[in-house]
Design goal:
It comes from Capsicum baccatum. Belongs to the RLP family. It is a single-pass type I membrane protein. The protein has 7 helices and 18 strands. It is of the alpha/beta class and 416 residues long. It is flat.
């Protein structure tokens, strides 16, 4: 039972972190649904819901309290699974060949024999698996190529491994997928524009791979409808191509809050439609080969030089280089002047505010000292003494109540 509590506690920490992360995304549906965990020990499940823990191990008691809190907070739920159907057995113990094949089938994995005769498992994702997080595990090889139709997968995180090859087209079958993080691998493919058809996709990170070619989209406005975070940085997009700009269709990503295209080989101008987007909180187009005038308007006024650095051909606010004689110079200067004027107005307001505050403080101090002087000079100190005595009594009673609550809390935990 102790090993089950340790596993539930560790897995629960990951679930709680994921829920907090999703809760911080403003447009994510609330409340976030609890994650179901399977356990093959009915004793552990019943003990997890119990208010009492009679075990002698203190660290297991702490884990029991954590699991019970996660259950009562609806962060996780725990369902019973028979031992013979527990597909996680290969991860915790040695099994016979038959056991490996049976549990692999339960995970919808199909065995494949390598060129050295070793049995390795790839294949369909389970119909009931919702979250798969295997980041920073030094995994190698290629991605599974047979994600099944009707997959329940909502989050797939394989960041920070050594995976190679192409991004499997069968990911289109994961219509519930909300988070896809394949960053920091060795994937060698073109831009997977077909991922834009996933209706629930909110986070897409393909950063730091070997993706190449132009960034093409279908041009449809129904692509990436729910996308919030879009990271394609540090790839080789547009390398060795005569021209490959930022797609104009990116200007219709009205829900995107973070867009990172830095460290590629993109050329051409920034799409003028970017000026119409109002959800941008993060924009990084640095270290490409972009040129022309930076569009002005809405969120683009809030970004600093580091969003555009490393593009020698870019001009306009917030960069110091103007837009030439095409009329953009005056607009850029006007925008900068307006920004500076706002800053100056804010500074003046803060100065006036502090002056008024100090004046009020000084006046109140003088009045207070005058009242004390009158009381002392007239000898009428009983009112002041009574006030100080009542205040001291209230402070002492508050401290006693706090100490009493702390003792009750420690006594209650020791009973558990």
């Amino acid at each position: 039972m102790e090993s089950e509590f340790i596993a539930l506690d560790k897995a629960g920490e990951e679930v709680e972190w994921l829920q907090n992360f999703l809760n911080d995304i403003p447009y994510w549906p609330k409340p976030v649904a609890p994650v179901c965990m399977h356990c093959d020990s009915q004793v552990t499940i019943s003990r997890a819901w119990s208010m009492m823990y009679n075990g002698k191990s203190r660290h297991i008691r702490r884990r029991h309290n954590t699991v019970r809190e996660l259950l009562s907070s609806r962060i996780i739920t725990v369902d019973y699974v028979k031992s013979k159907d527990n597909v996680s057995d290969p991860l915790t113990k040695g099994l016979s060949r038959e056991g490996v094949e049976r549990t692999s089938k339960g995970m919808s994995l199909s065995p494949r024999t390598s060129q050295h005769g070793e049995t390795i498992c790839f294949g369909n994702m389970s119909g009931h698996l919702e979250v798969l997080d295997m980041k920073h595990n030094n995994l190698s090889g290629t991605l599974p190529t047979t994600f099944s139709i009707g997959s329940a997968l909502r989050s797939l995180n394989l960041n920070g491994n050594k995976l190679e090859g192409k991004i499997p087209r069968s990911l289109e079958n994961c219509q519930r997928l909300e988070v896809l993080d394949l960053g920091d691998n060795l994937l060698n493919d073109t831009f997977p524009m077909w991922l834009g058809t996933l209706p629930a996709l909110r986070v897409l990170s393909l950063r730091s791979n070997k993706l190449h070619g132009p960034i093409r989209t279908s041009g449809s406005e129904s692509m990436f409808l729910e996308l919030r975070i879009f990271d394609l940085s540090r790839n080789d997009f547009s390398k060795n191509l005569p021209t490959s700009p930022i797609p104009q269709s990116f200007g219709s990503l009205s829900s995107v809050e973070s867009l990172d295209l830095s460290g590629n080989h993109l050329v051409g101008e920034i799409p003028a439609q970017f000026a119409c987007l109002t959800s941008f909180e993060v924009l990084n187009l640095s270290y490409n080969h972009l040129e022309g005038c930076i569009p002005q308007g809405n969120q683009l006024h809030t970004f600093e030089n580091n969003s555009y650095e490393g593009n020698d051909g870019l001009r306009g606010f917030p960069l110091s280089k103007g837009c030439g004689n095409d009329g953009h110079d005056s607009a850029s200067e006007e925008t900068y002047a307006r920004f500076a004027l706002d800053e100056e107005s804010n500074s003046e307001f803060l100065n006036d505010f502090w002056k008024a505050s100090l004046m009020g403080y000084g006046t109140g101090l003088c009045i207070g000292l005058s009242i004390i002087y009158i009381l002392i000079s007239t000898g009428n100190m009983k009112w002041l003494e009574r006030t100080v005595e009542e205040l001291g009594h209230k402070i002492m009673m508050a401290r006693r109540k706090k100490q009493r609550r702390q003792r009750n809390y420690r006594r209650k935990n020791n009973q558990f």
